[in-house]
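Next up, a chain.

===
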Amino acid sequence: MIGVDIAPNLVAQARERARQEGVPAEFREGDAEQLAFPDASFDMIISVFGAMFAPRPERVASELLRVCRPGGTIAMGNWTPSGFVGKMFALSAKHVPPPPGIPAPSMWGDESVVRQRFANGAKQIKCMRVNCDFRYPFPPAEVVKLFRTYFGPTQVAFSKLDANGQAAMAADLERLWTEHNQAKDGTTLIPGEYLEVHVLRA
Protein backbone atom coordinates (compact mmCIF):
# COMPACT_ATOMS: atom_id res chain seq x y z
CA MET A 1 0.00 0.00 0.00
CA ILE A 2 1.29 3.43 -0.98
CA GLY A 3 -0.13 6.75 0.22
CA VAL A 4 0.51 10.08 -1.49
CA ASP A 5 -0.12 13.62 -0.29
CA ILE A 6 1.19 16.99 -1.40
CA ALA A 7 1.55 18.22 2.21
CA PRO A 8 4.78 17.07 3.92
CA ASN A 9 3.25 17.39 7.41
CA LEU A 10 0.39 15.04 6.50
CA VAL A 11 2.82 12.52 5.01
CA ALA A 12 4.80 12.63 8.27
CA GLN A 13 1.61 12.14 10.31
CA ALA A 14 0.57 9.20 8.14
CA ARG A 15 3.96 7.52 8.55
CA GLU A 16 3.79 7.90 12.33
CA ARG A 17 0.21 6.64 12.49
CA ALA A 18 1.09 3.59 10.38
CA ARG A 19 4.08 2.91 12.64
CA GLN A 20 1.92 3.10 15.76
CA GLU A 21 -0.70 0.78 14.29
CA GLY A 22 1.80 -1.65 12.82
CA VAL A 23 0.50 -1.15 9.28
CA PRO A 24 3.01 -1.92 6.49
CA ALA A 25 2.51 1.14 4.31
CA GLU A 26 4.70 3.53 2.35
CA PHE A 27 3.97 7.25 2.19
CA ARG A 28 5.35 9.74 -0.30
CA GLU A 29 5.04 13.41 -1.07
CA GLY A 30 3.36 13.81 -4.45
CA ASP A 31 0.97 15.76 -6.63
CA ALA A 32 -2.31 14.25 -7.85
CA GLU A 33 -1.84 16.16 -11.10
CA GLN A 34 1.51 14.45 -11.79
CA LEU A 35 1.80 11.08 -10.08
CA ALA A 36 5.31 9.63 -10.00
CA PHE A 37 4.27 6.09 -10.95
CA PRO A 38 4.40 4.13 -14.21
CA ASP A 39 1.25 3.47 -16.23
CA ALA A 40 -1.07 0.78 -14.85
CA SER A 41 0.67 0.57 -11.47
CA PHE A 42 -2.31 -0.11 -9.20
CA ASP A 43 -5.36 -2.37 -8.99
CA MET A 44 -7.15 0.11 -6.73
CA ILE A 45 -6.81 3.84 -6.14
CA ILE A 46 -8.65 5.57 -3.30
CA SER A 47 -9.02 9.29 -2.66
CA VAL A 48 -11.25 10.46 0.18
CA PHE A 49 -11.61 14.25 0.24
CA GLY A 50 -8.08 14.54 -1.16
CA ALA A 51 -7.56 14.73 -4.93
CA MET A 52 -10.70 16.88 -5.21
CA PHE A 53 -8.65 19.85 -3.95
CA ALA A 54 -6.09 19.83 -6.77
CA PRO A 55 -6.64 22.92 -8.95
CA ARG A 56 -6.71 21.16 -12.36
CA PRO A 57 -9.29 18.36 -12.12
CA GLU A 58 -8.90 17.19 -15.71
CA ARG A 59 -5.25 16.40 -15.02
CA VAL A 60 -6.21 14.59 -11.83
CA ALA A 61 -8.73 12.39 -13.62
CA SER A 62 -6.22 11.67 -16.40
CA GLU A 63 -3.52 10.70 -13.90
CA LEU A 64 -5.81 8.47 -11.84
CA LEU A 65 -6.85 6.65 -15.00
CA ARG A 66 -3.26 6.40 -16.19
CA VAL A 67 -1.87 4.72 -13.09
CA CYS A 68 -4.86 2.37 -12.70
CA ARG A 69 -4.60 -1.04 -14.35
CA PRO A 70 -7.28 -2.06 -16.88
CA GLY A 71 -10.13 -3.59 -14.90
CA GLY A 72 -8.98 -1.80 -11.75
CA THR A 73 -11.03 0.54 -9.59
CA ILE A 74 -10.78 4.23 -8.75
CA ALA A 75 -12.80 5.09 -5.64
CA MET A 76 -13.39 8.65 -4.45
CA GLY A 77 -15.27 10.44 -1.71
CA ASN A 78 -16.01 14.05 -2.72
CA TRP A 79 -18.02 16.73 -0.91
CA THR A 80 -21.09 17.79 -2.89
CA PRO A 81 -21.87 21.42 -3.85
CA SER A 82 -25.30 21.23 -2.21
CA GLY A 83 -24.11 19.58 1.01
CA PHE A 84 -22.94 21.38 4.13
CA VAL A 85 -19.23 21.31 3.27
CA GLY A 86 -20.01 22.60 -0.22
CA LYS A 87 -21.83 25.52 1.42
CA MET A 88 -18.83 26.12 3.65
CA PHE A 89 -16.55 26.20 0.59
CA ALA A 90 -18.90 28.67 -1.14
CA LEU A 91 -18.81 30.91 1.92
CA SER A 92 -14.99 30.81 1.95
CA ALA A 93 -14.92 31.67 -1.76
CA LYS A 94 -17.08 34.72 -1.04
CA HIS A 95 -14.40 36.02 1.33
CA VAL A 96 -11.38 34.74 -0.62
CA PRO A 97 -12.27 34.36 -4.33
CA PRO A 98 -10.30 31.58 -6.06
CA PRO A 99 -7.99 32.42 -8.97
CA PRO A 100 -9.79 32.83 -12.32
CA GLY A 101 -10.39 29.56 -14.13
CA ILE A 102 -10.03 27.32 -11.07
CA PRO A 103 -13.23 25.26 -10.59
CA ALA A 104 -14.66 24.77 -7.12
CA PRO A 105 -13.39 21.56 -5.44
CA SER A 106 -17.00 20.59 -4.71
CA MET A 107 -17.66 20.14 -8.43
CA TRP A 108 -16.10 16.70 -7.87
CA GLY A 109 -19.29 16.02 -5.93
CA ASP A 110 -21.49 16.59 -9.00
CA GLU A 111 -22.18 13.25 -10.68
CA SER A 112 -22.47 14.70 -14.18
CA VAL A 113 -19.10 16.43 -13.79
CA VAL A 114 -17.48 13.24 -12.51
CA ARG A 115 -18.80 11.29 -15.49
CA GLN A 116 -17.45 13.90 -17.86
CA ARG A 117 -14.00 13.94 -16.25
CA PHE A 118 -13.62 10.15 -16.36
CA ALA A 119 -15.33 9.66 -19.74
CA ASN A 120 -12.10 8.80 -21.56
CA GLY A 121 -10.91 5.64 -19.90
CA ALA A 122 -13.77 4.41 -17.74
CA LYS A 123 -15.72 1.25 -18.50
CA GLN A 124 -18.28 1.92 -15.79
CA ILE A 125 -18.99 4.73 -13.33
CA LYS A 126 -21.24 4.40 -10.28
CA CYS A 127 -22.08 7.27 -7.94
CA MET A 128 -24.04 7.42 -4.73
CA ARG A 129 -24.79 10.29 -2.33
CA VAL A 130 -23.86 9.48 1.25
CA ASN A 131 -24.04 11.38 4.54
CA CYS A 132 -21.48 11.40 7.31
CA ASP A 133 -22.08 13.28 10.54
CA PHE A 134 -19.96 16.11 11.84
CA ARG A 135 -20.34 15.52 15.57
CA TYR A 136 -18.46 17.57 18.15
CA PRO A 137 -18.89 17.79 21.96
CA PHE A 138 -18.87 21.59 21.88
CA PRO A 139 -20.87 24.42 20.21
CA PRO A 140 -20.43 25.73 16.65
CA ALA A 141 -18.19 28.65 17.69
CA GLU A 142 -15.62 26.15 18.99
CA VAL A 143 -15.97 24.02 15.85
CA VAL A 144 -15.10 27.04 13.71
CA LYS A 145 -11.95 27.56 15.81
CA LEU A 146 -11.08 23.89 15.30
CA PHE A 147 -11.47 24.12 11.52
CA ARG A 148 -9.58 27.40 11.44
CA THR A 149 -6.65 25.69 13.15
CA TYR A 150 -6.61 22.24 11.54
CA PHE A 151 -8.65 22.12 8.29
CA GLY A 152 -6.37 23.01 5.38
CA PRO A 153 -8.79 24.91 3.10
CA THR A 154 -10.09 26.99 6.02
CA GLN A 155 -6.56 27.65 7.27
CA VAL A 156 -5.51 28.93 3.85
CA ALA A 157 -8.57 31.17 3.48
CA PHE A 158 -7.97 32.84 6.85
CA SER A 159 -4.28 33.32 6.10
CA LYS A 160 -5.15 35.48 3.09
CA LEU A 161 -7.33 37.92 5.06
CA ASP A 162 -6.48 40.87 7.28
CA ALA A 163 -7.83 41.08 10.85
CA ASN A 164 -11.17 42.58 9.79
CA GLY A 165 -11.60 40.04 7.02
CA GLN A 166 -10.82 37.17 9.38
CA ALA A 167 -13.37 38.44 11.90
CA ALA A 168 -16.05 38.71 9.20
CA MET A 169 -15.33 35.23 7.85
CA ALA A 170 -15.31 33.72 11.34
CA ALA A 171 -18.70 35.31 12.06
CA ASP A 172 -20.16 33.98 8.80
CA LEU A 173 -18.82 30.49 9.44
CA GLU A 174 -20.19 30.46 12.97
CA ARG A 175 -23.57 31.57 11.64
CA LEU A 176 -23.52 28.79 9.00
CA TRP A 177 -22.63 26.10 11.54
CA THR A 178 -25.25 27.38 13.96
CA GLU A 179 -28.02 27.47 11.34
CA HIS A 180 -27.36 23.85 10.31
CA ASN A 181 -26.70 22.47 13.77
CA GLN A 182 -29.22 19.74 14.69
CA ALA A 183 -28.02 19.32 18.29
CA LYS A 184 -29.95 21.06 21.07
CA ASP A 185 -27.66 20.34 24.02
CA GLY A 186 -24.74 22.70 23.45
CA THR A 187 -22.91 20.27 21.16
CA THR A 188 -22.72 20.22 17.35
CA LEU A 189 -24.26 17.70 14.93
CA ILE A 190 -24.47 18.40 11.20
CA PRO A 191 -24.86 15.85 8.36
CA GLY A 192 -22.26 16.29 5.65
CA GLU A 193 -23.17 14.97 2.20
CA TYR A 194 -20.55 13.53 -0.11
CA LEU A 195 -20.55 11.68 -3.42
CA GLU A 196 -19.17 8.15 -3.34
CA VAL A 197 -17.60 7.42 -6.73
CA HIS A 198 -16.55 4.03 -8.16
CA VAL A 199 -14.84 4.05 -11.54
CA LEU A 200 -14.06 0.78 -13.33
CA ARG A 201 -11.05 1.29 -15.58
CA ALA A 202 -11.56 0.21 -19.19
Q: What stands out?
A: Strands lie at 2-5, 26-29, 42-48, 68-79, 122-136, 188-201. The domain at 31-201 is CATH 3.40.50.150 (Rossmann fold).
